[in-house]
Amino acid sequence: MIRAGVIGVSGLAGGELVRLLAHHPELELTFAGGSASAGLRLGELHPGLREPGPTIQPGTEAPADRLDVVFLATPAAVSADLAAQLTDRVPAVIDLSGAFRIRTPHIHERWYPGVARAADLVDRCVYGAPELVGDRMADAALISLPGCQATAITLGLAPLALGLCLPLHRVLVDVKTGSSGSGLHLRTAGLHPLRSGAITPYAPTGHRHAAEVTEFLRRARPGAVDSLSMSAYGVPTVRGLLASIYVFTNRPLAQHELRRAYLRYYKGHPFVRLRQHTETRIPLPDPQAVSGSNYCDVTALADEEGGRIVVLAALDNLVKGAAGQAVQAANRRFGLAEETGLTMLPVVPA
Amino acid sequence: MIRAGVIGVSGLAGGELVRLLAHHPELELTFAGGSASAGLRLGELHPGLREPGPTIQPGTEAPADRLDVVFLATPAAVSADLAAQLTDRVPAVIDLSGAFRIRTPHIHERWYPGVARAADLVDRCVYGAPELVGDRMADAALISLPGCQATAITLGLAPLALGLCLPLHRVLVDVKTGSSGSGLHLRTAGLHPLRSGAITPYAPTGHRHAAEVTEFLRRARPGAVDSLSMSAYGVPTVRGLLASIYVFTNRPLAQHELRRAYLRYYKGHPFVRLRQHTETRIPLPDPQAVSGSNYCDVTALADEEGGRIVVLAALDNLVKGAAGQAVQAANRRFGLAEETGLTMLPVVPA
Amino acid sequence: MIRAGVIGVSGLAGGELVRLLAHHPELELTFAGGSASAGLRLGELHPGLREPGPTIQPGTEAPADRLDVVFLATPAAVSADLAAQLTDRVPAVIDLSGAFRIRTPHIHERWYPGVARAADLVDRCVYGAPELVGDRMADAALISLPGCQATAITLGLAPLALGLCLPLHRVLVDVKTGSSGSGLHLRTAGLHPLRSGAITPYAPTGHRHAAEVTEFLRRARPGAVDSLSMSAYGVPTVRGLLASIYVFTNRPLAQHELRRAYLRYYKGHPFVRLRQHTETRIPLPDPQAVSGSNYCDVTALADEEGGRIVVLAALDNLVKGAAGQAVQAANRRFGLAEETGLTMLPVVPA
Amino acid sequence: MIRAGVIGVSGLAGGELVRLLAHHPELELTFAGGSASAGLRLGELHPGLREPGPTIQPGTEAPADRLDVVFLATPAAVSADLAAQLTDRVPAVIDLSGAFRIRTPHIHERWYPGVARAADLVDRCVYGAPELVGDRMADAALISLPGCQATAITLGLAPLALGLCLPLHRVLVDVKTGSSGSGLHLRTAGLHPLRSGAITPYAPTGHRHAAEVTEFLRRARPGAVDSLSMSAYGVPTVRGLLASIYVFTNRPLAQHELRRAYLRYYKGHPFVRLRQHTETRIPLPDPQAVSGSNYCDVTALADEEGGRIVVLAALDNLVKGAAGQAVQAANRRFGLAEETGLTMLPVVPA
């Protein structure tokens, strides 16, 4: 068994890691770290567990010499510190925060002010969705995973930007996200009475995930995208996220070209489901249809009348958008089959 | 115009008072008090307002000499202090908190530990739903209103306990309440992700509203009820509350007797709607049907097979359960027609 | 009193008309028409009403000679027939359906196949939001109101397209709508278990409201918009609708220019609230903040970095998006003050 | 592999069986039957599936000679017919409907009018939750499972009625259920706008699950319960169900006695979780904490002041209340470990 520690079990992503590791045949949770909840039994925090489970300890007390992998489900500043402390002492550190997502220093500082990272860790860190950079995860000491929104956007755009190598200019992204995206941070606007009936433009003109996606695509293929602007909205679901990506093209693409490009790009990638099979009535991506699973559902539609391509990408914030993708990365890191422990079907309806 | 102050405008009940006073032809909001939000404009807190409105000030700065009535939508301990400070300096103080609901000192102290009240204020305070004690509100210096759950339960039981004078023993109350019942108190369990899919037994074996109801009924008619036990559950609506009241009787009552008793008891009370008119398909009480209005919908059903009476009472926590009832009390206090400013129909569906 | 008939009371928009007319001091509901519910009492359908109310009759039995205005809250094909039957027999017919929204015959036929309209009625019909064409409603025999989505989009765009006369090319609209937008049409996808956790791209590449908006703007100012493409999503709220409108501009506009243009355009229009007052913390448009009211909240943001303008417009599908706007039109038609009967504040939170 | 057919895949319970069988290492779905959806591919109905899957056929075409077990997720009348047709031609028939739940003919006819069952099938049928009658399932030709509400109530009461053998009189049950309990039956009241904000007393004075529970307990121990009355409410969750069971006792039981009795009764039963471990802060039963899993969470609380016992039982309507319990029964029937294929943890929050 591969011995895994999870730091940040009090949060939603940390809690989801606990659920997924309980299903994993090769990874075993042997350390549960959390500051707010230190001293509690794990089952007191996570009502899904059958047994009270181990006692939660401060994350800084993670026993590096008895762990094979540590998942950091902590705020970016804490992740930066813990990664510095644990990398090379533990064979693999997998960070779910934003601490290492953006490489360019001044862009990082703009979106993560005060999150100081060791420069050598930035250089050595492998960042990206396992579908796109999984090969480089095999021997990585430090892995950084995209945010939930960045994951959906990047998986939606990659076949156009990196597969077809279309010049993408003025990409416009409109993300609708459930409340789990904000985690369990205590703030009045997150309370049920205020969130339950709301459709809230919480980041209408700028979002750090846009910077993350743009940098990633440009590094993968210089000039892949000139401008990408993003607006993000909170809607009253819990786990779901739907990214709508609008791309204007000079050269019109037919629906069958689009479909072929996406099929080819994601061939062999079990967690990306291409929806709207033309021969069947498979529905379009809707996060309800992936709830609880590690799927990201993707469709690209040629809107010839509108002179645009509409790409839809849906995922569960806490699974493919966080904990599931982290386990998928661990599978790549340790040479396990990519789907190990992640074969649960969506729970529909949710 | 009657000059009204509202203290506690940052909370849900205070905010609802602001909405209702804006519709009221005789009461005018001339002072907005709030500690957390002091310095903000009222329209920054309450997105329903059209204009930025007045600046919020600390509640302790209420100008007693320029107010005719003060509504206290504050925590019980704050209400106790403000009532002592304002009563007799302002013609009428109307308290929405629990500070003055329970008269008997040791019962008060059990359920409101640390809430110290001036004994003479307790003696002079008129407590109860306007339907039941409205006559006594006409010259009251201090009025205390029942909690949202107590309002529904008392209005549901009064025709049996005080109208028919049935001996009620082993009354069992099961309340289902939306999230507005907890106000905007910051706690993890109140966040949208945790509340959205939950049905939570938050007070399964004891609730202070049970003590409040029991004391009230026994004072109104000694021996009216021997034991009343209550369980309360949070469900994922926002404004609604449904109280289910189960009463076992020695003497079976026919449905038509029940109906007649309730009709007679609430004749002339515009805010209690008796549902399930036998000649029509009027639905049973469901809080969705009273949303945004000051109605309390009530039905009493004879379950002859089960040897019991089932009373259902539905209201909007923030209107009939708090701010609406407070305005109704103010109408009684100042000799206005009971419905003044409260004629808005429910917003259905909500 | 102005005698009003409502046909289609079984639907959500018809039901909302019943609510609003109950609050209206000048319009009185004297005929309730509905096919599915004929024979029922109005209060059996609409749980918000206090009394059982009148018996519902088939819409075709509307007594034209005893009505001053008829509201058609019926499907487009039914509205086309009823308008032909009632126009000129009743002083004013106000249609909430899509029957008369699109003038150009082949565009109408594409989006409303099988809805045959009398050509002379199309010519005489006044179509549009009262803010934009209200002056022409004063003596109109037939008024057609925009759909809920078209209302939000048009009110959002008008200051740019018709006020500033900016050339708008490649306007991109992303609408998020609650379930009331689909009415009470029986279909499996509309059931609570399937809709409750969903974010559904139900019209990702084409929507008839886009055709409606485009035609309206071009008629108002030739060349006002070259292409407008729209995607629509269902989210699990009930009444809310938020339209996000993304506009790329050649000439960058500063935030203060935008703000001034919108303020000027909507000066004197009480139902359009311009949000994000710069001097206060008024929140951005969120449909929760207009729930139950006739407001449309609008903000235009200059996203200089993204080279675009982001316009947000929020409304309540059933009020400003349907019944409220219809009453507003009736007020214009009969020379009443525009706000008559429509002064209710939003019910927040909802 | 054990070859399984599921008839009724268009419904929610049938769909959940499809999900669970996909996870089951010993049961394989080899026939998908459904009338409404015949001709579709399974993946067109169930968006959780990765592949389009087999084509759905009419249930009457189930190939009895090539199946080891058939699950009937059909309406009661259809189940009665299919059970007559398939029993003894297929080794095991497992019915999720109400067709065989109530044995006594006149009670059956009262609650299931028009559902005619072969008398010999009633005699041979094993009915009950696997925790209570699992031993008798080992060689059963026909198994009938309790309804979702009856499952929660019976599991909640059994330790009192059948373990402690307390005389239970005047048991009062108040069930709060999510919308999945009504399945996908098309009716206006089930549409999202009407259900989303409602707390609906849909069966306030009588429910067929009460008859089912009462008969079961009395057959298990004559005199186990004298009267059990039930009220059922719809709340706006999807999968959850919480049963509150109020029991008055002559002899007061201490909390530790209750706890010990429940622990002893459910020792060795992996799917019943006893909550509120006294030594920890494990929360009380809330259906959110079992979502997607086969757990039934149970707590019994001694309310000494109220002279009653409060039993809470929470489950997921579609899993432990339907499909999961059916798979559990199949495991018992075929001698597999009870948890086979059912080890998924709850998906929390949902």
What does this structure look like?
4 copies of one chain form a homotetramer. With 350 residues, chain A is of the alpha/beta class. Chain A has helices at 12-23, 42-45, 76-86, 105-111, 119-124, 130-133, 148-163, 192-195, 208-220, 255-265, 319-333, and strands at residues 2-7, 27-33, 69-72, 92-95, 126-127, 142-144, 169-177, 200-203, 228-234, 240-248, 272-274, 296-303, 308-316. Chain A starts with a strand and ends in a 17-residue tail after the last helix. In chain A, 64% of the residues are buried. The model of chain A has no long low-confidence stretch (mean pLDDT 95). Chain A binds chain D through residues 12, 15, 19, 22-23, 40-41, 43-44, 46-50, 52, 180, 238-239, 270, 273, 277, 279-283, 286, 288-293, 295, 343-350, and chain D through 12, 15, 19, 22-23, 40-41, 43-44, 46-50, 52, 180, 238-239, 270, 273, 277, 279-283, 286, 288-293, 295, 343-350.
